[in-house]
Amino acid sequence: MQRFLDELEAQARTAPKPSLAQRSLAQAAELGRLQAQRDEQGLLMLERRPDSPPPDPFSLDLYLDGVVKRLNRSAAFVRNDPRSRGVRSAAVQFRINPNGSLKSFAVLNAGDQQDEIAFIRSVVERSIPFAAFPPDIDRAARSLGVTICIQPGRAGGFGFTRLPNGRAC
After folding, report:
1. What is the pTM (predicted TM-score) of this model?
2. Rounded Cα–Cα distance for residues 159 and 134 (Å)
3. pLDDT tens digit string along 111-159?
4. Which helix (H) or strand (E) holds 53?
5. What does the alpha-carbon distance between residue 121 and residue 105 come to, in Å, rounded to a whole number?
């Protein structure tokens, strides 16, 4: 057994260690794979600027809380028929520019929620403009994506809330 372990040790010593450049390239490739995976899953919120520092998570949370509050306030002024709710889940995503204007609005999954999607589009359009990005988010991001999940059969009223810990729809 000792001879086997000695052979492994000798092989480990003779194998060249990767250079700093090789390790950096491997780390960048892994980050690229993670980014692509998040893009595919629709979980990416920030469209980052190249070579920018990440924004402060606390600042990002406060900004998102402000967006949710603004959506809830605007929803009070948009008419919604509760009888037109479907039975399948749906999701929409909108992106906000750094100045608070709307960059895009996309339906990720329509299900049978066309009336709810139209209602949410009206709420988002009424909420515009959102607050401009704080300086740290403005330096780090070109846009911010907000995904809204439409869950059917929820009793107890209406309101926009944040899903805990990045939970997907």
Report:
1. 0.67
2. 25
3. 778 888 888 999 999 999 999 999 999 998 999 998 888 777 655 456 7
4. none
5. 8
